[in-house]
Amino acid sequence: MTVSRTFSIIKPDATRRNLTGAVTKMLEDGGLRVVASKRIHMTQAQAEGFYAVHKERPFFGELVEFMVSEPVVVQVLEGENAVLRNREIMGATNPSDADAGTIRKELALSIGENTVHGSDSEENAAIEIAYFFKDEEIVG
């Protein structure tokens, strides 16, 4: 068994609709454990830094604006093959392509308001976790 960690954000469209608990339940029911969680209102600088990889893409400004529009919940998740498992639970980026029972199929509003973000690799998970959490805040 390979227990690892990944990073998750419950996005503004979900917090606005009071779906934090529903999303977390789906993650936990899917075999992941929340080992750190906090509700924050991301600043412009935080959003721009976090999504810097997309800076040259045409949607960057809209993405940053969306992520600072409402509070988000940032989380560290732990479980067997956590990155892959989280991505399976989230479903495809476009909710219309997502499998039934996934977070995005069941809760997302659109491809832009798709409820959750999850790390795409163990390397990025480590970077993303460190961006929002100090080691002592992770209490798994």
Automatic annotation (TrEMBL):
The active site is at residue 117. Its main location: cytoplasm. Its EC number is 2.7.4.6. It comes from the Bacteria. It catalyses: a ribonucleoside 5'-diphosphate + ATP = a ribonucleoside 5'-triphosphate + ADP; a 2'-deoxyribonucleoside 5'-diphosphate + ATP = a 2'-deoxyribonucleoside 5'-triphosphate + ADP. Its cofactor is Mg(2+). Keywords: ATP-binding, Cytoplasm, Kinase, Magnesium, Metal-binding, Nucleotide metabolism, Nucleotide-binding, Phosphoprotein, Transferase. It is found in: Cytoplasm. ATP binds at residues 11, 59, 87, 93, 104, 114. Gene3D superfamilies: Nucleoside diphosphate kinase-like domain (3.30.70.141). One of its GO terms (biological process) is GTP biosynthetic process. Homotetramer. Major role in the synthesis of nucleoside triphosphates other than ATP. The ATP gamma phosphate is transferred to the NDP beta phosphate via a ping-pong mechanism, using a phosphorylated active-site intermediate. This is Nucleoside diphosphate kinase.
